[in-house]
Amino acid sequence: MINRRKLGTLIAVLLAVGLLSASAAPGSASSTLILDKFDEKKTTEITAHTPNEAPSGSVWFVELGIWEVRMGKAREQSTAPATPSSDYRALIDAGTADVSAEVKLKTDPNSDQFWGVVVRHSGPEDWIMAFHDGVGDLILGKKRPDENRFGVTVSTSDLTAGGFQELDRVPMNWNTGKKGRTHTITLQISGDTITVLADGDPVISAADDDSMTSGIVGIFSRGTGKNQFDKFTVKMNESGGGPLSSPLTVPDPEEEDGKSKRGKKDKDD
Fold this sequence. Notes:
seven-stranded antiparallel beta sheet; six-stranded antiparallel beta sheet; single chain; Jelly Rolls; 13% helix
C-alpha cells in the first residue's frame, strides 16, 4: 500500500509531466517550423541545402543573389549591386503567415552590409522586413506592388508603385570596430500586429493591415561584404495563444505530510 508521502509525490510528478507535455504539443506558441544551422561540410548553394527542420516539401529558393552555405554559415556572395534591385533574399515556405522569424548573424568589421529577416513575402515588391542598415539604425518596412511609399493605393503601372514604406526605425549602434560581433533580429507578426526584437529585446511595435497572408519567410542582405548568417529560426506566433505555462512547483512530501498531521491533531483537539 502506498503511504501518503509517496502518493503526494507521485501525483505532483504526474501533474508536472502532463503540463509539460501540453506546452510542448504541436500547434503551441513555441512550435518550431523552421530551424537552419547551415550545416554543410563543403560549399553548397543554398538551393541544394536541406534545413535541420522545415515543413514537408519546403526548400530554399533564391529571389536574387548568390547564396552559399558552408560550415555552419550562410553567405551572400554577390560582388556588385544587381539591376534593378540590390536586395538579395533567400526564401523558404513556413506554411503560415503568423510567425516569429529570427536570424542570427556575425557582422563583418569591414562591411556596411544591410542584413535582416523577411516575412509574408509574395514577390520582389511585396513583403515585410526588419533589417539593420549597416550604419546605425534598425528599420521595419514593407512594400506592396499597388502602393506608393506613403501607403496610398496606386496603379501597378504607376512609377511610384512598389515604393518602400518605412513603418518605424530605432537607433541601433552595432558598429563592430575591429572585430565582428554576433547579433539577432527577430520579426514577430500575428494578424496586423508586428513586433521587432534586437538581441532579444523588443524595440519596435507596429500595426499593419493583415491582407498580406503569404507564409514565405527568409533572410536578406544588401551590398558587398562578408557577413555570416549563423542560424535562422521560425516559430509559430499564434494570435491569442497567451503566455506559456508557469513552472510547476512540486510540493515537498515531508511538508505536505507535516501539514496533514497538524490538521489531524487540530481536529482531535
